């Protein structure tokens, strides 16, 4: 199989049972390299759980996860991050007391192959700082480098998370509701930032987002989850006119 034909991410027959409850069942998804996939579905459909299984936070009870053709099903979160997987969470994962620059610099340092010990690779640390400032300029936080991350507005925190992701140099990026809690004035800017990350870096992106207008404006394909499984995976137009999707999820208000 040629490299370009290898999917960036492949989940096969994925299942997760917790206690007596089936959270995921028979989830199959093949994501081509460089594509941008939206993941939608009603509350509790299993979207975040799928991201948790893909990133290694949760272990599936059946099925496999492959990243770039490599089986990572039993591996740790850390190992998957090293294999090029990055993600954001519904709630922020920033270091609130550290500066905006420092949050991204640490990610850059790791992305450059260094450790988190600044005294061990001083030259890399300098490069990491330069890169961090570049990424922060790209997301529109160039004038907030020295502020504590915790003092930023919600919209700016989400931009900072995107800058952190860019710095980690992740090939496959999972964005979990990046627009949640973002004010209407920040939605377009954040959406542009995500689009830019996808286009310039060629990252493969999977994004859970309830803000349908934003999602449909960004993605190539949409996966629809319903009761722990994927009931449709197609282009936005095909999804919007799919009768199964309409009756299961979108309803008459779509
Ligand atoms: N650790 C757990 N223990 C028990 N049930 C869980 C656990 N994690 C998730 N669930 C259940 O699994 C189902 C799927 O949850 P999940 O958060 O993945 O849904 P979601 O599609 O992301 O929802 P939302 O859009 O509201 O974020 C829910 O019914 C949830 O209560």
From TrEMBL:
Signal peptide: none
Protein's UniProt keywords contain Nucleotide-binding: yes
GO molecular function, one term: ATP binding
Alphabetically ordered keywords of this record: ATP-binding, Nucleotide-binding, Transport
InterPro entries given in the database record: AAA+_ATPase, ABC_AA/LPS_Transport, ABC_transporter-like_ATP-bd, BCA_ABC_TP_C, P-loop_NTPase
GO cellular component terms listed in the entry, alphabetical order: plasma membrane
Pfam families tied to this protein: ABC_tran (PF00005), BCA_ABC_TP_C (PF12399)
Protein name as it appears in the record: ABC transporter ATP-binding protein
Organism: Nocardioides seonyuensis
Lineage summary: Bacteria, Bacillati, Actinomycetota, Actinomycetes, Propionibacteriales
């Amino acid at each position: 199989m040629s490299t370009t034909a290898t999917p960036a991410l492949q989940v096969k027959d994925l299942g997760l049972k917790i206690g007596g409850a089936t959270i995921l069942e028979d989830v199959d998804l093949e994501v081509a390299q460089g594509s941008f996939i939206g993941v939608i579905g009603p509350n509790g459909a299993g979207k975040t759980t799928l991201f948790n299984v893909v990133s290694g936070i949760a272990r599936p009870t059946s099925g496999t996860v492959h990243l770039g053709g490599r089986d990572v099903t039993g591996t740790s979160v850390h190992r998957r991050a090293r294999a090029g997987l990055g993600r954001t969470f519904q709630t922020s994962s920033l270091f609130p007391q550290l500066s905006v620059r420092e949050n991204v610099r640490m990610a850059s340092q790791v992305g450059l192959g260094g450790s988190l010990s600044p005294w061990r690779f001083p030259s890399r640390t300098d490069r990491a700082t330069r890169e961090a400032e570049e990424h922060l300029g790209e997301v529109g936080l160039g004038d907030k480098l020295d502020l504590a991350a915790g003092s930023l507005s919600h919209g700016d925190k989400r931009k900072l998370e995107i800058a952190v992701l860019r710095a980690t140099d992740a090939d496959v990026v999972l964005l979990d509701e990046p627009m949640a809690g973002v004010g209407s004035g920040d939605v377009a800017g954040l959406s542009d930032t995500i689009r830019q990350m996808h286009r310039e870096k060629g990252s493969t992106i999977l994004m859970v987002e309830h803000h349908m207008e934003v999602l449909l404006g960004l993605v190539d394909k949409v996966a629809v989850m319903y009761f722990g499984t994927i009931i449709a995976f197609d282009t936005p137009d095909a999804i919007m006119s799919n009768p199964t999707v309409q009756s299961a999820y979108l309803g008459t208000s779509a």
